[in-house]
């Protein structure tokens, strides 16, 4: 069942999403060669609690940490540990928050030190594919329109679109209906309506779309050992159009990146 949100609820969800955005922005300044993902996890937990929220993932389905930290060939659900990040790694950071009874959930794949050109391109295309998908998230369109757009955009680069893990509705529960696959057919699936809120989160592999899971029961990685990227935004339908609730602007401020990629998806100006 799809839970439609009121305008007031959407504003509460924006608050939850922005706590995650700020957390990712804080982490952007900390991610460098030599730092461990467990250290970053502790920083994030403290930061979220200091902002009056709860870590959204900690204890969810018994996940042991605040952040999912998935380096290189890991796609999602990596568990923070004491292995230092090294120059040339990429690290996908997925973060959740819970405030006022609503979840925020978004993700960014960071470069650690100097990353090779092919991997940089994977990150750029995956990030762009989030907006390609968001553009299709409007009243009257269907789940398959978003998936189709993301799949076309990324497969034409020769990349693999992960099938087993998908985006999702978001609200008082972390994973609500509808499921939002990053592949699909135009005009197929549930129809989007005013007040829907979803997390759109392409998981894109440089090579095969096939996956493996580690024996820890959590970590998902590429079957061929090639890198994978993951970017995620929270989006509502307001006035029939996509309205971004999360932002990468805190990350871009920290990294000195100038971007207007989010502008087309903001009816309400972002106050940082
Ligand atoms: Mg997430
Ligand atoms: Mg999600």
What labels describe this entry?
272 residues; alpha+beta; Creatine Amidinohydrolase; 5 helices; binds magnesium ion
Name the CATH class. Answer: Alpha Beta
List the helices and strands in order: HHEEEEEHHEEEEEEEEEEH
Distance between the termini: 34 Å
Q: What's the oligomerization state? A: single chain
What does this protein look like?
With 272 residues, the protein is an alpha+beta fold. It has a single domain (7-265), classed as Creatine Amidinohydrolase (Alpha-Beta Complex), CATH 3.90.230.10. It has five helices and 15 strands. It has helices spanning 7-30, 37-50, 117-134, 143-155, 249-255; strands at 54-55, 67-71, 74-76, 90-99, 102-111, 160-161, 167-169, 176-180, 197-200, 203-205, 211-213, 220-222, 228-230, 233-238, 241-244. The protein has a five-stranded antiparallel β-sheet with strand order 8-7-9-14-15. Strands 1, 2, 4 and 5 form a four-stranded antiparallel β-sheet that branches. A three-stranded antiparallel β-sheet has the order 3-12-11, with no helix packed on it. A hairpin with a 2-residue loop joins strand 14 and strand 15 (241-244). The longest helix has 24 residues, at 7-30. The model has no long low-confidence stretch (mean pLDDT 98).
């Amino acid at each position: 069942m799809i839970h439609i949100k009121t305008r007031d609820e959407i504003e509460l969800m924006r608050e939850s999403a922005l706590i995650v955005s700020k957390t990712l922005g804080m982490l952007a300044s900390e991610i460098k060669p030599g730092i461990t993902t467990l250290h970053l996890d502790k920083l994030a937990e403290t930061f979220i609690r200091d902002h009056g929220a709860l870590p959204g993932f900690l204890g969810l389905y018994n996940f042991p940490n605040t952040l999912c930290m998935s380096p290189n060939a890991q796609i999602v659900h990596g568990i923070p540990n004491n292995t230092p990040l090294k120059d040339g790694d990429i690290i996908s950071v997925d973060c959740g928050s819970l405030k006022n009874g609503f979840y925020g959930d978004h993700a960014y794949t960071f470069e650690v030190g100097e990353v090779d050109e092919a991997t940089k391109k994977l990150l750029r295309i995956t990030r762009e594919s989030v907006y390609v998908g968001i553009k299709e998230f409007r009243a009257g369109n269907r789940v398959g329109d978003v998936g189709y757009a993301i799949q076309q955009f990324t497969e034409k680069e020769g990349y693999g679109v992960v099938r087993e893990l998908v985006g999702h509705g978001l609200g008082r529960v972390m994973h609500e209906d509808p499921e939002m696959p990053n592949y699909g057919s135009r005009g197929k699936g549930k129809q989007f309506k005013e007040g829907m809120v979803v997390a759109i989160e392409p998981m894109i592999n440089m090579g095969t779309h096939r996956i493996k899971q580690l024996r820890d029961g959590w970590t998902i990685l590429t079957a061929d050992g090639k890198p994978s990227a993951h970017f995620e935004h929270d989006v509502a339908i307001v006035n029939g159009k996509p309205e971004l609730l999360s932002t990468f602007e805190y990350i871009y401020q920290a990294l000195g990146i100038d971007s207007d990629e989010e502008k087309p998806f903001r009816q309400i100006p972002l106050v940082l």
